[in-house]
Amino acid sequence: MRESVRDRLLAGYDGTADRDGVSGKRLAERLAALASIGETEDGGVNRPGFSAEEKRAKEQVMTWMREAGLDVRMDGAGNVIGKLEGKTDVPAFAAGSHVDSVPNGGNFDGPLGVLSALEVVEAWKETGYVPPVPVEVIIFSEEEGSRFGAGIMGSQAMTGDLGRDALSVLSDSGGNSFEEVISAYGSSMDAFLEAARDPEEIGFYAEIHIEQGKLLEQAGLPAGIVKGIAGPAWLNALFHGTAGHAGNTPMIGRRDPLVAAGRFVHEVSSLPARFSDTAVATVGKLNVSPNGANVIPEQVALTVDIRDLDKEARDGLVRKVRETAERCAAEAGVEVELNLASSIDPVPVTDEVREELAQVFGQAGIRPMELMSGAGHDAMILGRNVPMAMIFVKSIGGISHNPAEWSDLDDCITAVHLLKRFAEKRMEKMAGHED
């Protein structure tokens, strides 16, 4: 019998980190409760954005929020906001993440950020601490993008970055339009658009997330400081050639788009290093048409995912990828159409915030290791408008988006304490009470 998420989390936890109102058992039981919603045979979860399973997970957390004394609401985009009043009425300190998942995903990506933020509030409740500014714990909708192929939708709705035109062209794998899906969810297109908030309502945003990599594990550290979130750019390339019979068409004079695409994919892997140490470029999706074993292809469609923390370097890499595609097409005697499908600016964490985090880590006796986030997060969207911070938690084996995704409870609770201390220091500054 497979060991339960709760039992596995608590098996190696000795409880010494249960202090200042923070409870490892409570966090473990809540992670396990969410793991049971949409549970798969492999021990992972299926909770697509705007699904019944995602909504059940949100409703469970909303119950916990109310029990912790938060004023809870769900906006038209399905975002959940639990608010704790502070001593002063100024922009809020917000923290959270998401509870939707990729197909057969893991139990920590998203839920850990939501439940860690809630655990901080629980600790304040138990110790009688009243924050100097309002606090919000937020669950964002459809962060992963598994429903519509368009992620971070809830945070973009909250910041007003999604319009009716962009939403009206979305449909899921079942052919359901976004309007049909959001209506079945209990909202509407109009209500979704009305979820946009006054940017002055939030003064700071923080997010705990698993690392989704091996750097912290290799360094023997429980947590690390995110120095910035890489900005993704997706470049679609469509190579056009001439279809023909594989046996009757001479090699000389062929116009084979797969030859051009193959050269291109090979060359793309060597380009990022020319621009920065943190740049990456990946071709993970490629479609050959007509895709017959004895047919020279007529066209090949692919997408290049290009990311870096440095916008200038990222944009330079995009231009070089374009040039490479055009050259590979010309050398193979085919044509290529290029379209920049999306481009999101990188979001660095300010020096001031990183220094504050480093102090908190140091006070906890943890070396303040800085890491870049290659994946997008809701913090990337909110970070365009307000200062933000991210804390990564060590991932065992760097596994993510997989039922084997795991972070030890000791490391998770360490991150909760780090967030709690950082929030208390940052809120004093937000309220104008410098240490």
Automatic annotation (TrEMBL):
**One GO MF term attached to the UniProt entry:** N-carbamoyl-L-amino-acid hydrolase activity
SUPFAM superfamilies according to UniProt: Bacterial exopeptidase dimerisation domain, Zn-dependent exopeptidases
Q: Which cofactor does it need?
A: Mn(2+); Zn(2+)
User: What keywords appear on the UniProt entry?
Assistant: Hydrolase, Manganese, Metal-binding, Zinc
Q: Where is the Peptidase M20 dimerisation domain?
A: 231-327
Chain sites annotated for binding Zn(2+) 1 = H98, D109, H209
EC class of this enzyme?
hydrolase
* Superkingdom of the source species: Bacteria
On subunit structure and binding partners, the annotation says: Homodimer.
Its family remark reads: Belongs to the peptidase M20 family.
- Which named protein is this? N-carbamoyl-L-amino acid hydrolase
Q: What is the lineage of its organism?
A: Bacteria, Bacillati, Bacillota, Bacilli, Bacillales
- Point out the gene that encodes the protein: amaB_1
